[in-house]
Amino acid sequence: MLVTYNHSRAAILCFGGWGLQVLLHLAPRLQATQEQRAALNAVGPDLNRITSFGAVLPEPLLTGDGQAQFYLRRLREDSVWPPFYVERLLADLQRKTLSPGEERINSILTASERRAVALLRAAEPMLQPMGYEGYAFTAPAGGLAGLGMRTTAHQPGGQRRATRGDIFNTSLTHADYAARLLETNVLDPIRQDNLAPDDPFVQTTLYVIAPMFEPLTSAMIWPLVGGLMARMGRRHISNVVGLFATGSYATDLTRGVEDAATYTALTELEVLTGVRQDESRRAALESYIRTTRAGLAEYVGERVFDHIYLLDREKANQGLAEESHELAVLAGNALEALIAGSGDLYIQEQLGFSAHSAGEERPYSLLGAAADYVPVNQILHAVNRQEESRLVRDWVLRNTPAESSHPLAQNSRYQPGPSLSELGFTQARALEVLALRMPNLYEHAEPTDLSELAVRQNFVYPAATAHELRRLGSEAWAVAFEDYLAQVRQTFDLAVGVKAANEAWGLAAADGSTGLGFAAGLEGDDRLYPQLLVRMHKRLVEHLAASPTGLMRAAEQTQRWLHEAEEGLQKLQTFSTPSTRQLARIQQDLAKREWAVQYQELAAGEPNFGAILLRAVGATALVGLLSLLYLMVVGKAWDATQDGLALGGFALGALLAGIATYRIHRTRQIRARRARILLAKAELTAELQTAAHDGLTRAYSQLIGVLQGWHQMLREAIDELQALSTPPDMPAVSPGDLPQNYIYAPHWNQPLWDRCLSYLRKHLETQGQRSEDRLDKLWGTAKWRTQMQRVLRAVPANAGAGRAQARPIAEFIRQTVRESVAPVTLQEDNPMRDNLIQALANEFSIEHLLWRGAAEAEDLERRLRALELGLPEVRPVTKAEATTNRRYIEAAWNRAKPTGNYDVADRLAVYGITVDFAAASGKADSDLTRALLDEFGVTLLPTENPFTIVFMRTVHGLQLDDLDCIRRYRAEHRGLAPDERVLIHLGPTIDKEPVRVQNGRSGAYSTN
């Protein structure tokens, strides 16, 4: 039974965290299957075009305004799946250490809800929302402060969680809009008419993947699926298949709540879909739904699901699944067989109406599925990784490339890069630029060092000011000079202050402390610091674009620049320290105080020239009077000539003495004023040197910050690439850090690995384009330079931003390396990869790796050739070969045991219809012939994929009471405390414990 357009269209709707696990596991798996089918020219549709995925996830925490909400997600179209994506996510989540805030929030969630929330956050890069931007699927909710468990020790303050009733109400509120989005994003893409050239009837199967043990998730199934069916109708969705996971995996006290939620959800679905005859509950649900979404109330009691598979933790042999992901892989095995092998159609044909015969509803089925596969995609990915690691190790991360004629080596010749001084950033240049801002301020027009900075005398006390203040007295001059000095300081601050230095050097235009980097138009700024950044940026881009070793060269260059800048900053710090500044300031204050005291004393004894003249006249008059009295006493007459000349000489001497005294004092005053001017000049000179020193310190510090950000960014990019440079270990398919899964087992060997690696290198050399040649052509292109310019312009402000910027550099280099290994790249279709897959299908099919060796393959080829020519068979199949095949099939059959702890071979089992099949290649040279499988009662469904075998066992026609696990979940439900029931019940008037009545005919139970 081949895959067909009209029977295999599958819309896979995944609910909750476990459903998201299935989606993340199955999506890359189907993509790889289709890649192999396409390479082998398989008959049938493209699985990528007839399958689509949607995810519905509830938010367990209420919003700040008390709203319950849920999300709709779909896969991004450009998603590239690394091997074991979801397995690694789950392993990382298990190892993650939670913060105290996360611990408090997790205390009000069940174990499955905690896992679902963490998985959604981790997988968001692979998903994208459905719906209009900003539209929220929210509705008012009551919520709970905790789990409602009596053992809860504490609750986080103010945080409330949603109940099943809250999510049920929210789902009903948005059922119409959600159904419209699911139709547009999930159903319509696979119902397009151009998928088939003929005119087949379009039959779409809706697979509903949901965990019953996640309390909130199970409350969304009927509103959204029922709303979608009510909107679309049975003509568009011909078959609805549910895969419901039951049974909690919690290791704490929330297991009882989750098990009880499983029983509650199943009984609710039975009432809503008409399976369970409970009129009172149905009436209560219908009344409740009518108040919220009246249109859906008419759909209560309508059959929604055609088949419901219960995937329980307990298996048919009473063993337990280790974790929920084992059931997710089981669901992936089953869905691949149902879709790729048209197994769903086969089951429908085998069952017919037997599952609903005699008027008794027995809608449940069990399944088990085990798969063996050749991990072709994983091996190709590892082969690419090995070749990429070689290129990164030999060229990108090489410090000293060997001498060779290869362009990569020629381009990477080491040339010492320019220093900061060669780029134009020196102390002398910075001081010269600062001096040009106000030339009349500086004593030297081109200072080369901080010690040469001095304030010009004419700036402190120009001639015009000296002329104005010259005639003032001592005290008036001191006051006037201080007022004038304040005006000089204002001009001085404008010329050499913080803003002045930043403007003169352009520090503010390229400030890396904001994390915004420098603008795209910075090249037009001819100031010192912007031009330095532009030159450094250009040099780094040249390093990065010149050759693959440019990353190491750029890192070394930034290290040298950083060392030079740190040396310059160290010299500045040595030239002027806080202690020397404080000491100089103290000395200046002492000098000013000493001058003030001396000047005050000088002002106090300042002579008056008129008083000096008056004293000279008085002294002369006194001497003349005494002379007259003396002459009168001795009896002599006044001699006008002799005595007059003597008195005149005395008067002249007295006058000259007074003038000399005045001039001496005046000289001392001028000298004191000059001393004050020199003190002011020295003070301004010290401030000038301090301001220039601080400006240079800021410039060097800012430069060091930028260089540290660049260097850290480049070093972290190198560290990111170090992991890529390490080639993968030989067991590239089953990583040791991930748990092995026996129901989805990879098979491979060393020859397969060697064949893939040799094929890659062989075809590269055949085309004359080695990986190095392709890398040389791809490196340093215009796109490359533009990307590096954009990344380097965003100067990181902190370590976190540096790591964020390092990832684009590393990823872009990694992408360039990947493009150079293009022949088997996994991102796009490639004929060379198709040829490789075709070759592997002939030599390394799953049968070759499981039981068929080279000799057996040759013998089988001879027998097939003999059959084609009509010759008698050369050699029949030996008993040993048949035993080997049977042994494998028997082992695989045992691994595919159904879940649910139910076995039709059990003497206590009354009901149960088995439908088993194997989905395998189905080619003529396959050993899985119908004759061999008939020994086990198994039908072979061909998939035309020689790399995978899926064995699937199903049991149909069961009721809930046929399963022991459901009885246990019912017991957990009965044991809930009243405050715990609030979480899992839709409402007090809707949910109640059903009354169980035994049917006399079958011994099964129903409810009234």
β-strand percent reads 5-15%
**Rg over alpha carbons:** 46 Å
Question: How would you classify the helix and strand content by structural class?
Answer: alpha/beta
Low-confidence stretches: 150-154, 400-406, 408-413, 513-517, 796-804, 823-827, 874-879, 995-1008
Shape: elongated
Counting DSSP E segments of at least 2 residues, the number of strands comes to 15
N-to-C terminal Cα separation, in Å? 44 Å
The helix fraction, in percent, is 55-70%
Q: Taking all residues together, what is the mean pLDDT?
A: 78
Number of helices: 38
- How many strands, which pairing sense, and closed or not: the largest β-sheet? 13 strands, mixed
Which key phrases capture this entry?
1008 residues, 38 helices, two-stranded antiparallel sheet, single chain, alpha/beta
Description:
The protein is an alpha/beta fold and 1008 residues long. 42% of the residues are buried. Mean pLDDT is 78; it is low at 150-154, 400-406, 408-413, 513-517, 796-804, 823-827, 874-879 and 995-1008. A hairpin with a 6-residue loop joins strand 14 (996-998) and strand 15. The longest helix has 84 residues, at 642-725. Helices cover 55% and strands 10% of the residues. It starts with a helix and ends with a strand. The strands form two sheets. Strands 1, 2, 3, 4, 5, 6, 7, 8, 9, 10, 11, 12 and 13 form a 13-stranded mixed sheet that branches. A two-stranded antiparallel sheet has the order 14-15.
